[in-house]
Amino acid sequence: MKPHGVQLNTVADLLGAATAELQELDTARLDAEVLLGMVLEVGREYCYAHAEAQVPAAAAADFWRLITRRRDGFPVAYLTGRREFWSLDLTVNQFTLIPRPETEQLVEVTLDLTRPHHAPELLELGTGSGAVSLALARERPDARITATDLCRHALDLAQHNAVRFGIGNVSFMVSDWYAALGARRFDVILSNPPYVDEQCPALWQTPLRHEPRLALDGGRGGLEGVSRIIAGARRHLRADAYLLLEHGFDQGESVRRLLRQQGFTEVETRLDAGGQERISSGRWQ
After folding, report:
1. Is residue 4 part of a domain?
2. CA–CA separation, 129 vs 154, rounded Å?
3. Strand, coil or helix: what is 162?
């Protein structure tokens, strides 16, 4: 909330007061700069080069409305409507999970496994904003990618992002996992499914409480979606194809067991940048 009785006219004044307002956040100053830059339609560097610039009253009022929402735990990505992923400046909204940096590893592993393939056919289950599929499509313009999601609003946003970037080798489909795919088979199936335990308190706490429950809640133990994906994958994988799954840091052993139970070979788990188990995969023969 704007300090009462204090006239804040300059960039420096506003940023100082907003940083104090957000002091409980590790990213307080950064968040303030990003939000002020959005309101003024300038980059963050403007805040340093024009610290004494006067800010119009209407813009300052808009800024404080954003700061209040940020203080209450609303994610910056939803406030700005933007999130960078794999150098793509994606449009995001509350119908989609905010893309995380660790999910870029899902792109990296898929690119590595498909390197020997010419024009591979890929399936992403639960595409959300389209981040992973669009990153893969940008790197592999020869690939044919099908991206599904149960939420029509999420798919609308993913298609919007595809149009923004001029990406034409991704097709989007409403589907409850494999339900709408018929007998189609792919060289790689990949997913970042919901994997938070339904009993986890974080689902109702900041910041997760602002993101779509459908994209987070993995049911009992967090593995209901993962189990369904693994069980159904063999009907949609070609010989020597791969299934890749992002999961929680403490779920690697369980996911590997599920993969082996369904007949996958070469089962392994890759660590993320923080040394936590993050991406598990198996080969279908």
Report:
1. no
2. 6
3. helix
pLDDT bin (cut points 50, 70, 90) of residue 3 is low
* Residues 65 and 98 both lie in one domain: no
Q: Which residue spans within 115-193 are E strands per DSSP?
A: 121-125, 144-149, 170-174, 186-191
180 three-class SS? coil
Q: Which pTM was predicted?
A: 0.90
- Over 60: is that where the pLDDT of 2 sits? no
Q: Is residue 253 part of a domain?
A: yes
Tell whether 56 and 181 lie within a shared domain. Answer: no
**Spatial contact of 84 and 90, defined as CB atoms under 8 Å apart:** yes
- Give the distance from CA 142 to its chain's centroid: 24
Residue 77 belongs to a domain: no
- DSSP strands (E only) in the chain: 82-85, 88-91, 121-125, 144-149, 170-174, 186-191, 237-246, 265-271, 277-284
